[in-house]
Every structure is written in structure tokens, then in C-alpha cells.
Amino acid sequence: MRWLVFVLLLLNFASFLWFWRDSNPQPEPEAGQMQRESEFPVASLQLLDERDPSSVTDAELLSSEQVRQDQSEQLAVAEPEGVECFQIDGFTDAKQAEDFVAAYAENFTLSVSSEEVATDPAYRVYLAPAENRSAADTALRDLRARLQAESLNIDSFIISEGELMNAISLGLFSEHSNALNVERQMLTLGYQVVLAEQSRQLQRNRVFLAERPGNPALAGLWAQISSSYPQLQRTEKLCETIAHEF
Predict the structure, then answer these.
(1) What is the pLDDT of residue 56?
(2) Which of 5, 14, 149, 211 is packed most tightly, with the most Cβ within 10 A?
(3) With contact defined as beta carbons under 8 Å apart, do 201 and 118 qualify?
(4) Given pLDDT bands bounded at 50, 70 and 90, which one contains residue 77?
(5) CA distance readout (Å), 76 to 51, 71, 73, 95, 212
(6) H-run or E-run covering 210
């Protein structure tokens, strides 16, 4: 009798599950969503090293190699080159600078720079130009006689060319006070002179030098240079600021 009751309970439970499933159906995916998912499959990321070598294309290998090469070049550029740069001034003329470069070209990287730069003006004192050279010669003889009689030591000569041709020069002075002194002396002798300021251009010659430090021979070489060219001044510079000179 007990087994009959147990079988009836199982049948009732099975019937309950059957009717519950029919009353709660599972939602089916929409057609549009299924289409979108099929059109855009999700790709998984995978490193070249993890893939089968036979499946990697030549284009992928070349691209990966190019990236590694670019990274290596960037690191090489970032590394310091260990170069020191100097500016050397004090050469008397361009030839001396060029001789310096020729003498030490095997030891350093060198270049010469020559440029005209404005400097302090000069002051010229002179007598106005005569009508011709004969009149200028006569005026110069008379002037020298007067200077000798007054024991005045003023250098005088005839200017032979240019805008002041046939004028008598009484000196070119770097100091304005010296020019004024000559002007006063000439006025006491009765001469009307001209005192004119003249602009001057000076040629500046310098050498730019680059070296790699750490070579013991270079220390001795610098001592030799200082002995041969005692007037030179060496100034260390940032290589970036004078790179265009080389």
C-alpha cells in the first residue's frame, strides 16, 4: 500500500513540472540581435610570439621588426654623445685662425668664423681739401713750418684719394679727447680744422672646436696650444648652440 502512495506522489510532482514549464517559456533572442552578433564577431588579441609560426604573414613580421628598429633608434638618439665644444677667440686675423685649424685638424673637429662687427668710432682731424694737389703741397709745407716753430709734434700728410682727396690729415684718434686737443692746438695757430667721427668695422675671427673628452693626450695638447697662442681665450659652449658652425 505504501508503494502505491509513493508512485502517486511522483506522478503528481512530474505533472506539476510539466505544466510549470509550459506556463514560463524561455525568451528567444531577437533576430536583429542575432544578425548583429554574427556580423561583428569579437576577435581575440594574440601576440605574434604566441601564434603558430606558419600562420604569421610576412607583412606582420616586417611591421613588428620596424617597430623594434624605431625603438632602438630613439634610444640611440637619446644617449649622450660625450662631446665637448669650445669657442676660441683672440686671433689677430683670419689667416692666423686658418693656420690654427690646419695645425690641429687631426686632433679636433674645427671650423673658422669671420665676421665684421661694429666697434668704437674713431675721430679724424683734418684741414679741408685744397683745390688741387699743388695747392695741397704748398699748404702742407706752410703748416709743417708753423708746427716746427711752435714745437708741436702733430703728424700731418695729404690724403691722396676718396672724398677727402687733397685734404691735410692731422691724425685719426680712438679717443675723442685726443682729437679735441689737436683741434685746440690748431686753433691757436689760426687754422680752422674739421673734427669728424668715423664709424669703424672690426673683423672678428674665431674658431669653433669640438672634442671627445677622456683622451690624456689632449690635455698636453691644450698646454701646447696655450704656449703657442698665449693671446687666445677658450670658452666652453653648449654643443647645441654652435652645431650650425660645423
Answers:
(1) 54
(2) 211
(3) yes
(4) very low
(5) 31, 9, 5, 39, 18
(6) strand 194-211
